[in-house]
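Repro:
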Amino acid sequence: MTAPYRFITISASHYCDKARWAMDRAGIVYVEEGHLPIAHLRATLPLRLRSGRKDVRATPCLVRGKDVWPDSTGILLHVDAGLPEPLRLFPAEPTLRAAVEAWEARCDDDLGPNARRLAYWHVLPHKDLALRALQAGVPGWEVALVRAAYPLAARGIRRTLHITDESAARSLAKVRALFADASAALAAQPADAAGQRWLVGDRMSAADVTFAALAAPVLLPDDHPFMNVPVEDTPPAFAAIVRELRATAAGAHGTRMYADERGRKVV
């Protein structure tokens, strides 16, 4: 019997849930090892040293035997390879696949970092709220350590992610622009037989999963498996942003994806 995968994560990370979503959907058996930000390096460093791969540093990181998949997109592609084409998140038809890849890459490069920076900028000043948002599924000793050294940990996150007043303002503008483009893309697509619209084509793809997962820090979907913070518990300025984005067509798509598709298995 094949051993299950090891899945090394920052539990609340939106990139990790992108990969987790694909694996759950495909029925992949894995054992998750969740960590807090920065503490995850203790788990990924041995893999990096053993494999000699410089890209083995961040999470998510999927491991089985000597094989390592250190990136959310790589994990999606690996999972997709084991599915029949009609169930894959990357369609085979070249034009559709190129469009899916373009949306997936844009969300990875633009939405993911900016949504994360914006959420951290609002939440990090509130220690209890930040730990509540991040601690699900991680070892208790990590939570205790970060709680005791919270100013140092928060400073490290701000420095690593380049979080300043100015960068947070730029991130908000970029998130709004991407949501506007996603709303327009959804409006341009015909509805499927169930009345749903997708970012590309007439079925759910990696574009939709990536958008929904990476928008989660600024949508706070009720059905997220780890990001368990109701919007009303967040600072008022951030709550207003969440409600603004939820009211867009793209925001409604992201929250619907979590409500209707996040727990759905295809095999």
